[in-house]
Amino acid sequence: MYDGKKVIVGLVVFLAFALFPVWYNLAAGTSGYMPELKKPEGYTKCVESTPYMRAFHMDLLNQWRDEFVRESDRYHSAPDGTRYWKSLSGTCMKCHANKDTFCDRCHNYVGVTPYCWDCHVQPQGVK
Ligand code: HEC
Ligand code: HEC
Ligand code: HEC
Are the CB atoms for 64 and 76 separated by under 8 Å? Predict the structure, then answer.
C-alpha cells in the first residue's frame, strides 16, 4: 500500500539526519570548511562565548524575544558582567552590521533563511 503521509514523514526524518552532520559540524566548529566570516570591527567579544554563540545563537535569540516580549525582562548579563539590551536589530546587528558577510554567509552555506527580517530592521545599506 502507498501511504503518502508516511513517505513524507520518512523523507523529513531522513533529511534531518542526512543534513545533521553539516550543521552540527559547523556549529561545533569542527567542520573542515567554514565560510569566511567578517567579524565586527572594534569589538572583541560577543554577548556570550564564541563557541556558545556559534552553536546556540538561535536559541538565545528565541529566549531574548520571549523574555523581552512576555516578561519585560530587557537586559542580558554577559559572563563578564556587561549588560546588553535584548534586541535583534538594536544589539546583535549594531555589532554585526555586516550581515551579508556574517549572518548570511553562514546561513547560505547551511541553507537556512531566518524569516526575522520580514519585520525586524536590517543594518542599513544591506539588502
Ligand atoms: C558587542 C558587540 C556584539 C554584540 C552585541 C553581538 N555580537 Fe556576536 N560577536 C561579536 C564578536 C566580536 C564576535 C567574534 C568573537 C571572536 O572572534 O571570538 C562575535 C561572534 C558571534 C558568533 C560566532 C561567529 C563564529 O565565528 O562562529 C555568532 C553566531 C554571533 N556572534 C551572533 C550574534 C547574535 C545572534 C547576537 C545577538 C544576540 C550577537 N552576536 C551580538 C560581537 C558582538
Ligand atoms: C557560524 C555560522 C553562523 C553565523 C555566523 C550565524 N548563524 Fe544563524 N544559524 C546558523 C546555523 C547552522 C543555523 C541553523 C541551526 C539549526 O537548524 O538548528 C542558524 C539559525 C539561525 C536562526 C534560526 C533560523 C530558523 O529558521 O530556525 C536565526 C534566527 C539566526 N540563525 C540568526 C542569526 C543572526 C542574526 C546572525 C548574525 C548576527 C547569525 N545567525 C549568524 C549558523 C550561523
Ligand atoms: C511578524 C513580525 C515578526 C517576525 C517575523 C519576527 N519578529 Fe521578533 N518581534 C516582533 C515584534 C512586533 C516584537 C516586539 C517589539 C517591541 O515590543 O518593541 C519583536 C521582538 C523581538 C525581540 C526583542 C526586541 C527586539 O527589539 O529585538 C527579539 C530578540 C526578536 N523579536 C527576535 C526575532 C527573531 C530571532 C526572529 C526570527 C527568527 C523574529 N523576531 C521574527 C515581530 C516579529
Answer: yes
Taking only Cα atoms into account, the Rg of the chain, rounded to an integer number of angstroms, comes to 17
Contacts of residue 123, Cβ cutoff 8 Å, sequence gap at least 6: 93, 96, 97, 98, 99
Which residues line the pocket of ligand 1, CB cutoff 6 A?
37, 39-40, 43-47, 50, 53-54, 57, 60-61, 84, 91-92, 95-96
Instruction: Record the cell numbers describing residue 78, joined without a space.
Output: 554577559
Rounded distance from Cα 104 to ligand 1 centre (Å): 13
Burial of 48 (0-12, 13-18, 19+ CB in 10 A): middle
- In this structure, what C-alpha cell is assigned to residue 57? 545563537
Q: Pick the residue whose CA is nearest to atom 34 on ligand 3.
A: 116
The answer on pLDDT for 28 being more than 70 is no
pLDDT tens readout for residues 45-64: 999 999 999 999 999 999 99
